[in-house]
């Protein structure tokens, strides 16, 4: 393929907004230019961009691909394909592809942008690659699921995958005769399907492989199905058995389906440089490393295909590398302090229990021949919860395959499935519960983390906590939510004193009482389920004429939480393991019958605009959020009111009227707008909504018919909603700055931005941190504007943090839009921010990972994200978080670096603080924690891991060394806290940065 000469600076611009530093944008431009010049040479077919985590490899890859397409002289369709690890990264790449097309590709046409709006760019299943589709985003997991022995799979492949193509139908029929669809031939079927996909596909002009290190194990004896399928589909190799059984394929298969390949990974090498060759072997038949058999040969060739840069800061007239702008807490502490305190075992019961557990675990592990354990494979280091509280039935993964319940998301060895101490913990904890009650014993490390993170939430500091075990996600989320509800809300924001005692209303009192009744929801839920199973209760329920939507357990829970005396008495008896008498049952059934009418009434209440069930249920949620669901009538009715009224809608007319440059336009537009449609509306809130819409439409009319709208606009258009009053009076400077920035574009663009801002602000009060104070203000029975402002604005106000969140959204609007909502679609924004919670968890069970990441990139809810390694690569979580806890440690140092890179990257909170202040201070740095209990066997694994991390960080910029990161920890190793390796403090240099590129 030939490429024409182009002026690159007239095609792409990497500094599309002020948030991108000049230095970073220039480096990205230089790498793109070098990569394009290299790949536009007909002899070169692959480049590897291996920049450190967070330097913008996605944009570099898109930049190179865009220039190749722009400069191509090819006649006819041009095909770009991206391959990414998982489904959530497909969403991310589509977002970035659209963003690059809209803001960085200067000559992007309307037709090009229209192509990017096609959601079918994301491929949920592998199909033959069509050159009629200019963009396709595939996921690696799809390559693993090409074969199945389920009934009907051949018909599915014939009709759905290959579109009933005659040749493919014939091959699949022969495969059936050769038993390829039998369980024992699953791998052979996968190979055949991959070969057929290659034969039926058009050539790929440019292939981008994100996180290419996933192919590091190559095509050896134990090669994964994913690697084999990728190799065959891309024509990087052939399979003799398949070609023997299906010789017709030989002439149809294409060698090196992709003409140009761009590999992206911050960690192309884990242990040995030969891993880079193994990756390319899966992607291309011919490449510069194909004939290399020795490490030295790869090392000699590498400068010709690989570019790796480090993130650097120019501060205090010096250049610092990324590691110098992190603070690594290697003393085992969890508190945010320069001189932090280790977590030590005291003399309390939790310490005694821990030591008993450790003793039993060591005794158990000592029976192994080598008396050792794998890093991160002892559950007791994380929590005492071995089994999941909530089992998810019939789970499927992103590719529709059944998922077996598992303890760990990612393990080093495929045969490792369970903690090595799981049975020990289960036995001891069950014994504890029998003797001391249902709750698990306190965990010294978990309790300290819980307390510290709660303190940070009080200051609205975000934390990203990585764990290994899925059960730990559930336990930590549950505990942190309870602490949030109890310490921050009940004993904090709702503990009104001084001039705020007037907010202790009857409705607030009822809410507090409901919380007191529900604080131990686990035991209550168990007791409710037990009571609902009583034969007398079941018989009574069957006789009751109940609506279809009703549920017996839900009704009992409803009555209990509302404090129905007789119901509460029986449930509390069951909780305390007492059996209710026949008289008790008779009384409580009578009480339930009396309460049934109210229960049936509330379940039939009209759903409000944002449906609660559109999204997967959260593991656990804050009581002070769930209070506004149907379970609690007072809270639910208020939330309906929030959606019905216009408290939180920003009045565009008043905003424009407040700006000297827009005032005249606002008045003239109001004068000429026909508001008769609005005045015809019966509901006040609806009249306001329609009036706003009519006014916005009128702003877009170039030559409207003159209409005297003075009488109406003076009445309804000037309605001072709460959010409008808050911004015009108390956020005056921030609002003026926002309007000044966004009123210089066309009116259509200004209105799009305005509605996006409106949606961001609405989400705070409808679904986020502002809903509770709005309820408190409304419960006074006075004007909500005045009371809510009083609860938010003064610095000593109980909900002042919500006011700070509003100001942050105004100040950081462009940043928030660029990282989360490039579409600027107000309805999509409201939908994505529909189910906000102060603490969230994420594991492979959660299919809405992109939405979770979007919410965590907001300045308010959620304050804490607890995640397994499912989030260790791909998603950016950096916008307002600068604290990473490696609570459950991974064995692999590259995995640890990938985790930390979720928040340590371009435009992160720390990045912005460092560059805006120009100095390195403790508070400006990314904070990285490795919590462990001192004087315990846990020290042994931390010593080994941190040593591996230092080796990985030092050697990676040189790459030459071959490292063996032993994951086995010996129980008899004599180590202490003094052996903990210190974090690397010297500046790091890359030998493979752009100035050393030889391609």
TrEMBL record:
Protein name (Swiss-Prot/TrEMBL): Helicase conserved C-terminal domain-containing protein
InterPro entries: Helicase/UvrB_N, Helicase_ATP-bd, Helicase_C-like, P-loop_NTPase
Residues in Helicase ATP-binding domain copies: 38-286
Source organism per UniProt: Pedobacter planticolens
Pfam families: Helicase_C (PF00271), ResIII (PF04851)
Taxonomic superkingdom: Bacteria
One MF annotation (Gene Ontology) recorded for this entry: hydrolase activity
Domain called Helicase C-terminal: residue spans: 783-976
SMART domains: DEXDc (SM00487), HELICc (SM00490)
């Amino acid at each position: 393929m030939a490429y024409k000469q182009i002026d690159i600076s007239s095609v792409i611009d990497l500094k599309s907004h002020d948030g991108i530093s000049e230095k970073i944008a220039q480096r990205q431009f230089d790498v793109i230019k070098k990569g394009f010049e290299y790949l536009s040479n007909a002899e070169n077919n692959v480049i590897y961009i291996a920049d450190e985590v967070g330097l913008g490899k996605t944009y570099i890859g898109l930049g190179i691909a865009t220039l190749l397409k722009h400069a191509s002289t090819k006649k006819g369709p041009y095909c770009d394909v991206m391959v990414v690890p998982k489904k959530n990264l497909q969403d991310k790449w589509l977002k970035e592809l659209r963003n690059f097309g809209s803001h960085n590709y200067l000559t992007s046409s309307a037709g090009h942008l229209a192509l990017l709006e096609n959601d079918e760019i994301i491929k949920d299943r592998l199909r033959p690659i069509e050159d009629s589709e200019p963009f396709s985003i595939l996921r690696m997991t799809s390559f693993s699921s090409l074969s199945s022995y389920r009934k009907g799979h051949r018909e599915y492949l014939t009709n759905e995958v290959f579109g009933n193509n005659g040749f493919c139908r014939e091959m699949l029929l022969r495969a059936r005769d050769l038993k390829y669809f039998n369980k024992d031939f699953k791998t052979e079927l996968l190979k055949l399907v991959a070969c057929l996909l290659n034969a039926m596909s058009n050539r790929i002009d440019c292939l981008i492989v994100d996180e290419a290190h996933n192919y590091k194990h190559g095509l050896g004896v134990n090669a994964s199905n994913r690697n084999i399928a990728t190799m065959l589909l891309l024509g990087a190799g052939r399979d003799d058995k398949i070609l023997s059984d299906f010789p017709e394929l030989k002439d149809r298969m294409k060698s090196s389906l992709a003409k140009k390949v761009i590999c992206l990974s911050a960690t192309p090498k884990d242990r040995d440089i030969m891993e880079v060759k193994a990756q390319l072997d899966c992607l291309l038949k011919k490449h510069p490393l194909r004939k290399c058999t020795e490490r030295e040969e790869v090392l000699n060739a590498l400068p010709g295909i690989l570019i790796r840069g480090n993130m650097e800061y120019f501060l205090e007239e010096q250049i610092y590398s990324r590691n110098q702008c992190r603070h690594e807490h290697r003393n085992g502490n969890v508190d945010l302090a320069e001189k932090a305190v280790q977590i030590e075992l005291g003399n309390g019961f939790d310490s005694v229990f821990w030591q008993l557990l450790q003793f039993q675990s060591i005794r158990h592990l000592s029976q192994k021949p080598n008396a050792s354990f794998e890093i991160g494979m002892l559950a007791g280091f994380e929590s005492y919860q071995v089994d999941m509280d909530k089992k998810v039935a019939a789970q499927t993964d992103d590719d529709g395959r059944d998922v077996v319940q598992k303890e760990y998301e990612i393990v080093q060895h495929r045969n490792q499935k369970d903690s090595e101490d799981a049975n020990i913990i289960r036995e001891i904890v069950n014994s504890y519960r029998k003797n001391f009650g249902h709750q698990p014993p306190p965990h010294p490390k978990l309790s300290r983390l819980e307390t510290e993170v709660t303190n940070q939430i009080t200051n609205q500091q975000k934390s990203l906590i990585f764990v290994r075990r899925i059960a730990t996600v559930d336990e930590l989320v549950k505990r942190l939510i309870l602490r949030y509800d109890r310490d921050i809300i009940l004993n904090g924001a709702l503990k009104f004193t001084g001039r705020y005692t007037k907010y202790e209303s009857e409705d607030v009192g009822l809410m507090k009482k409901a919380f007191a009744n529900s604080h131990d929801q686990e035991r209550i839920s168990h007791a409710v389920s037990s009571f609902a199973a009583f034969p007398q209760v079941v018989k009574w329920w069957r006789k009751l004429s109940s609506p279809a939507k009703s549920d017996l357990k839900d009704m009992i829970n409803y009555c209990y939480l509302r404090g129905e005396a007789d119901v509460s008495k029986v449930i509390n008896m069951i909780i305390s393991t007492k059996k209710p008498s026949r008289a008790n049952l008779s009384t409580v059934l009578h009480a339930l019958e009396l309460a049934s009418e109210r229960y049936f009434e509330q379940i039939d209440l009209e759903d409000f605009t944002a449906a609660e069930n559109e999204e997967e249920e959260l593991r656990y949620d804050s009581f002070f959020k769930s209070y506004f669901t149907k379970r609690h009538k007072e809270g639910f009715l208020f939330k309906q009111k929030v959606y019905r009224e216009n408290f939180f809608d920003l009045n565009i007319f008043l905003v424009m009227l407040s700006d000297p440059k827009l005032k005249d336009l606002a008045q003239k537009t109001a004068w000429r707008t026909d508001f008769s449609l609005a005045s015809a509306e019966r509901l006040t809130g609806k009249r306001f909504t329609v009036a706003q819409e009519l006014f916005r439409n009128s702003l877009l009319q170039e030559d409207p018919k003159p209409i005297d709208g003075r009488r109406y606009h003076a009445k309804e258009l000037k309605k001072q909603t709460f959010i409008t009053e808050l911004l015009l009076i108390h956020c005056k400077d921030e609002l003026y700055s926002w309007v000044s920035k966004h009123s210089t574009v066309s009116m259509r663009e200004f209105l799009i931005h305005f509605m996006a801002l409106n949606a961001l602000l609405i989400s705070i009060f409808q679904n986020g941190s502002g809903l509770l104070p709005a309820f408190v203000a409304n419960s006074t029975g006075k004007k909500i504007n005045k009371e809510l402002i009083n609860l938010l604005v003064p610095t000593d106000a109980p909900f002042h943090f919500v006011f700070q969140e509003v100001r942050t959204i105004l100040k950081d609007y462009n940043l928030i839009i660029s990282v989360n909502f490039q579409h600027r679609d107000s309805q999509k924004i409201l939908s994505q921010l529909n189910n906000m919670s102060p603490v969230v968890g994420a594991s492979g069970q959660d299919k809405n990972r992109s939405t979770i990441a979007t919410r965590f990139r907001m300045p308010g809810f959620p304050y804490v994200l607890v995640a397994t390694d499912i989030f260790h690569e791909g998603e950016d979580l950096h916008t307002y978080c600068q604290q990473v806890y490696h609570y459950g440690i991974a064995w692999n140092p590259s995995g640890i670096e990938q985790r930390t890179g979720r928040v340590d990257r371009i435009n992160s909170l720390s990045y912005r603080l460092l560059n805006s202040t120009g100095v390195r201070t403790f508070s400006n740095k990314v904070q990285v924690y490795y919590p462990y209990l001192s004087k315990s066997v846990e020290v042994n694994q931390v010593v080994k891991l941190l040593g591996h991390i230092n080796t990985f960080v030092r050697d990676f910029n040189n790459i030459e060394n071959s490292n063996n990161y032993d994951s086995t920890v010996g129980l008899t190793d004599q180590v202490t806290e003094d052996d903990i390796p210190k974090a690397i403090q010297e500046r790091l240099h890359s030998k493979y940065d752009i100035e050393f590129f030889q391609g």
